[in-house]
Amino acid sequence: MYNKVSAAPANRKMLRFITAGGVDDGKSTLIGRLLYDSKSIFEDQMEHIVRSGKRLGRRETDLSLLTDGLRAEREQGITIDVAYRYFSTPKRKFIIADAPGHVQYTRNMVTGASTADAAVILVNSQTGAVEQTARHLFIVSLLGIKHVVFCINKMDIRKWSEECFRETETRLFNMANRLYFAETVCIPISAKYGDNVVDKSANMPWYRGKTFLETIEDINIKKDDTSCKKRFPVQTVIRPDTEEYNCRRRYAGMVAGGTFRRGDAIVVLPSMQKSKIKSIDVFSGNIDECTEGESVAITLEDDIDVSRGCMIVGTDCLPSASYNINAVICWFNERPPKYGVRYVVRSNTNETRCIIKGINCKFNVNTLGMGSSDNNIVMNDIADIDIITAKPLFFDSYTKNRTTGSLILIDEATNETVAAGMIS
């Protein structure tokens, strides 16, 4: 009854998407139904879900248990942490991040959305768009996600009413139009019964659009052209003491932008030393070039000082470097930010101390923009701030490069991550 998850062809484009929405809107159930109806669940997984449901007193098979892995999540029927699931169809491969709906777990949602290409926002047909819908939509916009799929769930409770769907659809599109997404789609579904998830619903003949699976299979993700913006943050230095490698240092990390080729002229930041790439190594051996997202080890022709926190970049397109950083942050901590208190700021592998110079404004999620006169920041607030660093950071705007344009703030005393930000 349940097929083994098949390996997808290597040339198929991966889609990372996040599911977000309010509590009990059906995010986990949607993912469970998607995997079940697309026959992407192993038989032993299904048996475990059935046993867990019986133990928890569920009268029907609860597909949300597939993603709700923590004991507290299963007992309360909610999502607390971000749950990741992988599956594929003959058309595409997917990585799904199931985000929590409670307001106090907004920081988890930010984490899951930071690497997503698209967002699936669930809306309860009984309540329509609520404040948490606006909050998630606003965060998705700030994180640079351009494709949004609205799933109006629990249409069975509203007796499959087209009028109910159109009313909610209009309000959602009005909200989304103020945030300049590239694509927004609205689908009426019943995640519990599978209507319009994988198969067309016989209960809603008035809906002539694509099913949810067809929609995510057809999303066309256009990556920004960063071919000239070669970025390689150095994560660690490898110095193998073997005759084969001749004790030459290799600089390991993940390519954050552009394409590096053997023989390319490069600059090492912050020292501004110049060299050329002598070799590019992966586990299987030498390669001629590497591109964004690949983990490699690079060897340079010259022996120059390179360590963790440095960045190897192309000579024709250097990133910005400054002590003064402007960023939009989401505050994660119960304690509010303090002026003049030292925090650790980390951008990629580069780390230094900083202080918060000022809070320019706090965003109002209800109006989907700036305008809040209250600049007192509490947990889950989104604000535009200025920080001063002890040494210059080198970065790109977040809108140009999500990897080199992001940062986190860490409490020096407790080592807690108190904020995540997008550099303006």
Description:
The strands form four sheets. Strands 7, 8, 9, 11, 12, 13, 15 and 16 form an eight-stranded antiparallel beta sheet that branches. The chain has helices at 27-37, 43-55, 71-76, 106-113, 131-142, 162-177, 212-218, and strands spanning 14-21, 83-88, 93-98, 118-124, 147-153, 183-188, 231-233, 236-238, 250-254, 259-261, 265-269, 273-282, 285-287, 289-291, 295-300, 311-314, 320-331, 342-347, 350-364, 369-372, 382-395, 406-411, 417-423. Helices cover 17% and strands 35% of the residues. The relative contact order is 0.11. It is built from seven helices and 23 strands. With 424 residues, the chain is α+β, with helices and mostly antiparallel strands.
As a percent range, the share of strand residues is 35-45%
Mean pLDDT: 83
**Which regions are unreliable across 5 or more consecutive residues at pLDDT < 50?**
1-11, 69-80
Distance between the termini: 51 Å
Structural class label: alpha+beta
N to C succession of SSEs: EHHHEEHEHEHEHEEEEEEEEEEEEEEEEE
What value does the Rg take, in angstroms? Answer: 24 Å
User: Counting H and I runs of at least 4 residues, what is the number of helices?
Assistant: 7
DSSP E strands, number: 23
Please tell me what the overall shape is: globular
Task: Describe the main β-sheet briefly.
Answer: 8 strands, antiparallel
Estimated helix fraction: 10-25%
